[in-house]
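User: My collaborator and I are trying to settle a disagreement about how two of our proteins should look. Neither of us wants to argue from intuition anymore, so we agreed to look at predicted structures for both before our next call. Could you fold the first one, then the second, and keep them clearly separated?

Assistant: That sounds like a sensible way to settle it. I'll keep them separate. The first protein:
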Amino acid sequence: MTRPVDALFAPFRIGSLSLPNRLVMAPMGRLQTDNNLPRPTYPEYFRKRAAGGVGLLIGEAVAVDHAVACSSDKHAFFHGDPALQAWKDVVDAVHGAGGAFMPQLWHGGLLRGPNRPGAFPNEHLESMGPSGWAVPLVHPQPIGSPIEAEGPLGIAMTERDIADVVASFARAAADAVAIGADGIEIHAAHGYLIDQFLWPRMNRRTDGYGGSIANRVRFAAEIVSACRAAVPSNFPIFFRYSQWKQQDYGARPAATPAELEQFLAPLVDAGVDLFDCSTRRFWEPAFAGSDLSVAGWTRKLSGRPTMAVGSVGLDKASWDTANAHSVSSADAASLDPVIERLERGEYDLVGLGRMLIPNPDWPQLIRSGATDRIRPYSNANLAEFP
């Protein structure tokens, strides 16, 4: 790493939220819950990373109160007094360490999987998606059962079902305010329910929620709008979308900048304050003919701040080097390309995931120059909690 790190530690303000730096703990599914409730170790897990210098911490995906939102007792609820109290304990611990916290609101949709008696809450109910059509997963998941083949899996959502899910997200947003959270993130990425509406391979509807980009993004925009109405006007709403799905790493929400602009505009109008642009490798160009990342294009086209995420700081990322964009793993670990893009205004925040598991004090180590104390990430670190 040769560039100064000052840009990473510049303050940032969005709505009612003031951050001391640009470093965000990206949402990571740790699945350390018991009967859908965060364990007592959760507050300490997040507190350690806030104390280590992370400005904003976004929690793992938490299920809204819709009956078929989640697929396992390992997914945390964000509804009901016990769950909300557990998350309030997290918020209070993070605030006590000088950080800010947001829950990531989520619905699994058809990735909930087929009915498996006793495997998940409300297992007797059919899973729902835009068309009841599922695409197989790339690899078996750590929970549940992989979808074996592309085809019908659950039921297609009626307009009443859609309205019920929208209302569930709005109630969760209001609950986030009630427990003192600093904002919310809406999870519309990685092949889960909202993303299933955005993706033509799973959205085969012929009504106002399918077909054109404007129709496919309508469900997401209605969720954002309902959440915006349920929270104070300056309460930040982040929106995570992804260039990839768990079922298809090459999937894209839009094939051209013009399509991406069509995708983003309704979400901006609905009230998104910041886009969390999930990619597997933050530096890869979103479209041919430009080196702008998806976070860069999103910022340019939407006029909203963005967050870049994807293999930041890793010594070795899980990628196909033949497709890497002139950035080696050593370069990625050095942070020079992250800082360069941040300095030129390509994005506003930097999301860190896996590196914060073995290094809860990663920001402090970077700022002080003690990079020799940074522990490399390995999958064995996933057993570390808190």
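The second protein, kept apart from the first:
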Amino acid sequence: MPRRKRGKPVNGWLVLDKPYDMTSTQAVGACRRLFDAQKAGHAGTLDPLATGILAVAFGEATKTVPFVMDGRKSYRFTARWGVATTTDDAEGEAIATSDVRPSSEDIQAILNRFVGEIEQLPPKFSAIKVNGERAYDLARDGEEVELKSRRVDIYDLRLVDTPDADHGVFEAETGKGAYIRSLVRDMGQALGTCGHVSQLRRTAVGPFDESQAKKLDLLEQMRDNPALMGELSPVSTALDDIPACAVSGGDALKLQRGQAVVLTPAQAKTVRGEEKGFIPAVLAETRDGPQAICALDGLKLKPTRVFNL
């Protein structure tokens, strides 16, 4: 007899404003308990000392997590010049210092070096896996962590304030896998000094931004209130950027069974738009809501992720 799942079949996205000094795992756990949800995950780790948008997926929304993680992310952060740390943020111990303090003009002059597709070495204290272990676990155990640099996208980077000689406040928009801690570390080196992140806030990820963010303490006050479920965004919110295709009830049943359906040339043309060839992600939906994430190959709509809503 299958083991009964604990909790309720909650489905949807919660845009959480993660508090300071809380891990992403702890935040997801708190949200899962609050909603008494059977299943929960998140779309992109935030460091404990970072605040801001943590997109929490419940139930069937977990099947759409990759689409949010592949989306652009926006940050507002403060760089502390003159001190390098083991973690590249304020949590670590100082490992180097410098008396050099860059001017606003100095900073503006190097920003373009860090915009576009750039080479970046992730921090040793990161969630990247090395031989099956998280890099931060190995680093905390005192093991030498060797990570490989990788290409990441920085779409926008700008200096917005210099409150004093020791600090610069920036805003950035990045692609998947970019580390703000690495960005500040590398900017410090380019400026002839050293630096680390003293404050970090994620202001947007994929389709979610601060206008939708919910404070955990306010959500806690709504515990056991039916209105709490109204704080969730639909599962399909994460799929706003992929083409959608309306299917009949009969075709929806086929997709639910894992079977492909054949579109008419007119339907396929509508889905494709200007795209040609194989399309890896199409949302098949009926009036009742999303049915499956599919791949469009010719006229065939093949299910890759089926929703049980």
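Some points you might bring to the call about the second protein. The longest strand covers residues 150-164. The chain is about 20% helix and 35% strand.
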